[in-house]
Design a protein that fits this description.
Blueprint lengths: L12 E6 L17 E2 L2 E2 L2 H8 L5 E8 L18 E5 L6 H9 L2 H5 L4 E6 L7 H13 L4 E7 L8 E4 L5 E5 L6 H4 L3 E10 H7 L16 H8 L4 E6 L10 H21 L3 E2 L6 E2 L4 E2 L4 E2 L4 E3 L3 E2 L4 E2 L4 E3 L2 E2 L4 E2 L4 E3 L2 E2 L4 E2 L4 E2 L4 E2 L4 E4 L2 E7 L4 E4 L2 E7 L4 E2 L4 E3 L9 E3 L4 E2 L4 E3 L2 E3 L4 E2 L4 E2 L8 E2 L11 H20 L1
Parallel strand pairs: 1-4, 1-6, 4-5, 7-11, 12-15, 13-16, 14-17, 15-18, 16-19, 17-20, 18-21, 19-22, 20-23, 21-24, 22-25, 23-26, 24-27, 25-28, 26-28, 27-29, 28-30, 29-31, 30-33, 31-34, 32-35, 33-36, 34-37, 35-38, 37-39
Antiparallel strand pairs: 2-3, 6-10, 7-10, 8-9
Length: 487
């Protein structure tokens, strides 16, 4: 077949992710392609690889089962084309999935000249591999381009068949392969770049496998060859084709992705004390000089600055940590901001809406929710700060609670700058405390406190001489009486 090089402008690609499989071997109520891997769904990894192709990609479709999938939860970055679900009404194999696309308006009316087809459960595919496949497609625009890999143990994979000249003649699934064919180590990686013309010609012409009743995309290769068409291959690494069918395989690809992501951060100057026990999601950014202790988990769009220290067991979800901040052991932060040089923990809980200013301190067993602490403010012990704004350099004593909920509504508290809040204080919102005020320990604040004021709220107390001694005598007598009755 005569081939000609296609210009970048002439080639338009639609991405297709195959995600209609039932995933029964996962034994989980969660759809296989939505299984979490380092904080994001499994499907998001091949989606990201596709999206990395940029303007060349017109759209990305995902083939889903009859009941559909909540693919709106899967993201691949701000610039990525949105996933467009296409339902495969009948679960009749990978060619059936392609024919589900054929019946869609996108295939009939869309501008794509080629379709890039990937398995939705293959998270180790990288954009560089897809770029190489596209380059081959530009060189041979009328050819079916597929990816192969060579495995030491090819059991379970379709073998690539070639003639004496090395040209591909077909793909043989293992259950139909001869002993000689099973000895072949080159296998189908399940990644294809297929011209629209080839897909259109084969529509309705791929027959079901007589043993399983399913129609396979792999049969398209032999059909193209039988009609004098051209098949080109690109060899990839064994890991790039690794898919997920069981929980054990999910664990293994998670391990490989963890290694890949952590290695990338280490190359940029981040220190992992134990990278095998530190999980970092694909959207996380970390500055040079930051140290991560084991068992920490950073996920979502978390950003950690330079020169930070993230302690053992820390869990950061969609949070921002400024340069030079210290997150001590076992802190949980969700959609929170920690300012430069701030110190948090250990055992602190920062809920959504928390904002800590420069060099603020939030100590052990402190919980915050929609709490804004100014620069240098401190709440070092055993406190709950909800719906509150705290000014610069204010000190919040141990056991302080902002009482922000009356059972029906939430109310806010405002505490000014340079305020001293004594231990065991309750601030009943809505209430405000002016700059420089002092709240005596044990107070219940139910009214606004003027700037510079001293606020006390205590019941009358007294010390009764010998009262403690008499109390102990009564208690001892009662205890001894109970012992005699039992004997």
């Amino acid at each position: 077949m005569t081939t000609k090089t296609m210009t970048t402008e002439a080639m338009v690609i639609d991405g297709v992710l195959l995600a209609a499989g039932s995933g029964t071997r996962m034994r989980s109520p969660v759809a296989k392609v939505l299984s979490p891997v380092l904080g994001v769904p499994l499907l998001s990894y091949p989606y990201r690889a596709m999206a990395g192709l940029g303007p060349l990609l017109a759209s990305i479709h995902v083939i889903v089962p009859p009941g559909g999938l909540p693919v709106e939860t899967v993201h691949a970055g701000r610039e990525a084309p949105p996933l467009q679900p296409v339902i495969q009404e009948k679960p009749d194999g990978t060619w059936g999935a392609c024919e589900a696309l054929f019946s869609s308006r996108i295939f009939l009316e869309g501008p794509a000249t080629h379709f890039l087809v990937l398995n939705g459960d293959g998270p180790l595919v990288e954009t560089a591999l897809l770029d190489a496949l596209v380059a081959l497609g530009r060189e041979y625009p009328e050819a079916l381009v597929l990816t192969t890999a060579r495995l030491d143990n090819p059991t379970g994979y379709g073998r690539i068949l070639r003639d004496s000249s090395g040209k591909v003649t077909g793909i043989r699934e293992e259950n139909g392969a001869s002993s000689e064919e099973r000895a072949l180590r080159e296998v189908n990686a399940g990644i294809y770049l297929i011209p629209r013309t080839i897909l259109h010609e084969a529509r309705g012409k791929i027959l079901p496998d007589p043993r399983k009743g399913e129609r396979y995309l792999t049969d398209l290769v032999a059909r193209v060859v039988s009609r004098g068409g051209e098949v080109r291959t690109h060899e990839a690494s064994a890991d790039s084709m690794r898919g997920v069918n069981t929980q054990e395989e999910l664990s293994r690809v998670t391990e490989l992705l963890r290694e890949r992501i952590n290695r990338g951060h280490m190359e940029q100057g981040v220190t992992f004390q134990d990278p095998a026990r530190t999980d970092v999601g694909p959207d996380v950014t970390i500055g040079a000089g930051t140290v991560l202790l084991p068992q920490s988990f950073l996920e979502g769009k978390t950003r950690v600055g330079t020169g930070c220290r993230v302690g053992m067991g820390v869990h950061l979800i969609g949070s921002e940590v400024g340069d030079g901040a210290t997150i001590r052991d076992y802190v949980v932060a969700t959609e929170a901001v920690v300012g430069p040089g701030a110190v948090v923990g250990p055992f602190a809980h920062l809920r959504p809406g928390t904002r800590l200013g420069r060099e603020a301190h939030l100590g052990n067993f402190v919980e915050t929710k929609k709490a804004v602490l100014g620069a240098g403010a401190k709440a070092n012990h055993l406190s709950y700060l909800g719906d509150v704004t705290v000014g610069e350099r204010t000190n919040i004593g141990a056991g302080t609670i902002t009482c922000n909920y009356d059972g029906y509504e939430k109310f806010s508290t405002t505490i000014g700058a340079d305020v001293f809040v004594g231990s065991d204080t309750q601030l009943v919102a809505p209430v405000s405390v002016g700059d420089g005020a002092v709240i005596a320990a044990g107070s219940t604040v139910v009214e606004d406190v003027p700037p510079g004021a001293l606020y006390l709220s205590r019941a009358r107390s007294e010390a009764r001489p010998e009262g403690g001694t008499r109390y102990r005598r009564r208690r001892e007598a009662k205890k001894n009486s109970s012992k005699k009755e039992l004997s």
